[in-house]
Write a structure and sequence with these properties.
Helix content: 25-40%
CATH class of the largest domain: Alpha Beta
Radius of gyration: 28 Å
CATH architecture of the largest domain: 3-Layer(aba) Sandwich
Oligomer: single chain
CATH topology of the largest domain: Rossmann fold
Strand order of the largest sheet: 12-13-11-14-15-10-16
Protein name: Replication restart protein PriA
Bound molecules: adenosine-5'-diphosphate, zinc ion
GO molecular function, one term: DNA binding
Shape: globular
Catalytic activity: ATP + H2O = ADP + phosphate + H(+); Couples ATP hydrolysis with the unwinding of duplex DNA by translocating in the 3'-5' direction
Low-confidence stretches: 186-190
Subunit structure: Component of the replication restart primosome.
EC number: 5.6.2.4
Number of domains: 5
Length: about 725
């Protein structure tokens, strides 16, 4: 009898064996329902063998194999295996967590997945049906039928607008063979403006399409506004002509709807699915199935979409490749960008990494010849140039509530010309801390090693790490002083200061607090485009990708605090962020300028920003990293541990360090240290860093170490390995 080796979502690094009456090689990759303890769970068949390490009489029978959707392909399973090996995470959990929730359920999935822009048309058989056969009291059915007869296509969206029950009725008719699914091919009213490519864009497109169907990692290094998106569009266009699927990965939060719209407007006849965190389970399943069946041509998604099955996959694009949201920060700490590159190599297809400020890892790979770089060095729109950047020396400047006289003057002039300004301060809330001036007490979170942020509007203090909130204390709990002061500035306070300075201006704040409601971001974007807003104040949410045609001035506040951080990546991150915000200005007909308020106007980072010179800064940062022995010159892994009790955490890490020393050839082991956030949500956290100049040596060390760590159960701590960590 065949024995199935099954991946289950169970936190132990093993597969589970079950017996089946019948199963063969072709069933590998299928879903299977099995008994586990007292429960029924669903897993994926990863192997079929004739014997097991478990005695035969102890093996249980499977409950059933689900065959309604095709099995996961061997390529996808290889990607998941690689992921499990590289990140040292149990294979079963890697496999199961890569799948949509509904695939993990103990139920067959419905096969008739449809996406929003698809709809239904009458079949030959359907057209022969007489509407009189539908009873006239059934008004909904009659109405739907009339629409189907009169319009060529009834889209799902329209159907849902007519009635929530409409889709069920339509599916019933689909089963009867009266309807078939069709795709909205776009109305002619949508104007397709396909610009002529710039010289540099043409070179990039030609270089990549020349080498379609072979593996190559391309870096598309283009300044903001250089038209990287247009390059993606042309590549996808070519892919569509060759009948291959494209996977486009984009960062979290930001831009899915905008990019989706751009794609839909350009490729009206193509099938686009988008997979991001805003979807419900059914939508996610539907998109995933469309991709798996090869029915979607373009798959647009965030991090997790890197695991989407796509039988005709021929091109992968990773936009804003430097974005930290490509790295998952809990559980399986994978990098979707790095897995995308692995997947491209495995399938021998090109992968395009796009960025204005590539990560130093990527840039290093270009310098060493591993990746190939294509440059877009000027803005695509005629006459648009990068805005001049100037520093305002805050040591000698008069200020009012954190705004320098020069910035206020510049904003005033901008408003006079009826243009928009953007004030960037990457700190939400009113003030980052509440202080007692007489004794120095500061409000801190009881559960985290962080200070509580002042939110004046709702008179609360809030922890931005765990979400804890409390009311303002009436007096200092330490000395009784009643005059507590909010210290420092956040978006709310700057918004208030701007309102004082410019009482007539229409000001909009944009941060996680102000766009919490679904769609509020969309509404605000529209208002910006209709010029109903004069001044935007906001955090990094504003930095990315948006085109604001009337934006003439960008002011940058409070960025100094990242200049001398202990985190060796802080400078890189700040530079990326500032280049992005600065890039918002002067993208269209309106020319722009950027003002940075700083006490360190001579800092190399600001100098590079002034010259828009990524390369000079990148090279100097790389030189520093080389000297200090940091990535990309070494490969790192972090053993992260947490528990309620710090001593236990440190004891565990001490023991881990000891066993590490027994076999660490070529691998450097550091001492355990508290994490940057030493306490988070009531848990004490510490970590131990290991690193090596050889990725291979680090990997074989980690494999052995991991096995030994699993035996250290007595310490009762939660631990996880973070390979290629980007946060400490
Ligand atoms: P990036 O993503 O590189 O910052 P975008 O792709 O957003 O830049 O392009 C910036 C602007 O330039 C967009 O408004 C886009 O429509 C326009 N654009 C892109 N390519 C061209 C071109 N070849 N000719 C004219 N306009 C272009
Ligand atoms: Zn006090
Ligand atoms: Zn907290």
């Amino acid at each position: 009898m065949p024995i199935l080796r099954v991946a289950l979502n169970i936190p132990v690094d093993t597969l589970f064996d079950y017996i089946a009456d019948e199963a063969d090689e072709n069933d590998i990759g299928l879903r299977v329902c099995v008994p586990f303890g007292k429960k029924k769970v669903t897993g994926i068949i990863l192997d079929i063998c004739s014997d097991s390490d478990v005695p035969l009489e102890k093996l249980k029978y499977i409950i059933c194999i689900f065959r309604e959707i095709p099995p996961l392909s061997s390529e996808l399973l290889a990607l998941l295996r690689f992921c499990s090996n590289y990140y040292h995470h149990p294979l079963g959990m890697v496999v199961m967590n890569s799948l949509p929730g509904k695939i993990r359920n103990n139920k067959p999935v419905s096969f008739k997945g449809t996406v929003n822009h698809t709809g239904f048309v009458l079949t030959e058989a359907g057209r022969k049906i007489d509407i009189a056969t539908i009873p006239s009291r059934n008004t909904l059915k009659r109405r739907l039928w009339t629409v189907l007869q009169n319009e060529q296509l009834l889209t799902l969206r329209q159907a849902r607008d007519i009635s929530p029950r409409a889709v069920t009725i339509l599916k019933g008719w689909l089963d009867k063979g009266w309807l078939e699914e069709a795709i909205e091919t776009g109305s002619d009213s949508i104007k397709k403006i396909v610009p002529e490519l710039t010289e540099e864009q043409s070179v990039a497109v030609a270089a990549i399409t020349d080498k379609f169907k072979q593996f190559e990692t391309w870096l598309l290094h283009g300044i903001t506004g250089s038209g990287k998106t247009e390059v993606y569009l042309r590549l996808i266009d070519r892919a569509l002509k060759e009948n291959i699927q494209t996977l486009v990965l984009i960062p979290e939060i930001s831009l899915t709807p905008q990019l989706e719209t751009v794609f839909r407007n350009r490729f009206t006849a193509s099938r686009i699915v988008s997979l991001h965190s805003g979807l419900n389970d059914t939508e996610r399943l539907t998109g995933w199935l469309q991709a798996q069946q090869g029915r979607a041509d373009i798959i647009l998604g965030t991090r997790l979409a890197v695991f989407t099955p796509a039988p005709r996959l021929g091109l992968i694009i990773v936009d804003e490749e430097q974005d930290s949201s490509f790295k998952q920060q809990d559980g399986l700490r994978y990098s979707a960008r790095d897995l995308a590159i692995f997947r491209a190599r495995q399938m021998q297809i090109p992968v395009v990494l796009g960025s204005a400020t590539p990560s130093l890892e990527t840039y290093y790979n270009v310098l060493s010849g591993k990746y190939r770089c294509l440059r877009l060095s000027s803005r695509a729109v005629r006459n648009a140039v990068l805005p001049p950047v100037e520093c305002i020396d805050m040591r000698s400047e008069k200020t009012a509530d954190g705004l320098s006289a020069r910035l206020i003057h510049a904003i005033g002039k901008c408003l006079d010309r009826q243009l928009q300004c953007l004030i960037f301060i990457n700190r939400r809330g009113y003030a980052p801390v509440l202080l007692c001036p007489s004794c120095g007490w500061a409000a801190v979170c009881q559960r985290c090693s962080s200070r509580l942020v002042v939110h004046l509007q709702d008179k609360r203090l809030s922890c931005h790490h765990c979400g804890h909130q409390e009311y303002f204390p009436r007096a200092c709990p330490q000395c009784g002083n009643q005059d507590m002061i909010p210290f420092g500035r956040g978006t709310q306070r700057i918004e208030e200061a701007l309102a004082t300075q410019f009482p007539l201006a229409r000001i909009q704040r944009i941060d996680r607090d102000s766009i919490r409601r679904k769609n509020s971001w969309q509404t605000i974007l529209q208002a910006i485009h209709r010029q109903e807003i004069d001044i935007l104040v906001g955090t990094q949410l504003l930095a990315k990708g948006h085109d604001f045609p009337n934006l003439a001035l960008v002011g940058i506040l409070g960025s100094d605090r990242s200049l001398y951080s202990t985190d060796f990546r802080a400078g890189e991150r700040l530079f990326t962020q500032l280049m992005q915000v600065a890039g918002r200005a002067g993208r269209a007909a309106v020319s722009g300028s950027v003002l940075v308020q700083t006490e360190f106007p001579r800092h190399p980072l600001y100098q590079a920003l002034r010259q828009h010179d990524y390369d000079v800064l990148a090279e100097s940062m790389l030189a520093e990293r080389k000297m200090a022995g940091f990535p990309p010159y070494v490969y790192q892994a972090l053993l992260r541990a947490e528990a309620h009790n710090l001593t236990r955490v440190l004891d565990f890490l001490g023991a881990a360090q000891k066993i590490a020393y027994s076999h660490h050839a070529g691998v450097e082991i550091f001492d355990p240290v508290p994490a940057y956030m030493a306490r988070l949500k009531g848990m004490e956290r510490a970590h131990l860093l290991v690193q090596s100049r050889s990725r291979g040596k680090l990997q074989s060390f980690l494999t052995r170490w991991c096995e030994q760590l699993s035996a250290l159960t007595a310490f009762k701590v939660r631990w996880v390995l973070d390979v290629d960590p980007i946060e400490f």
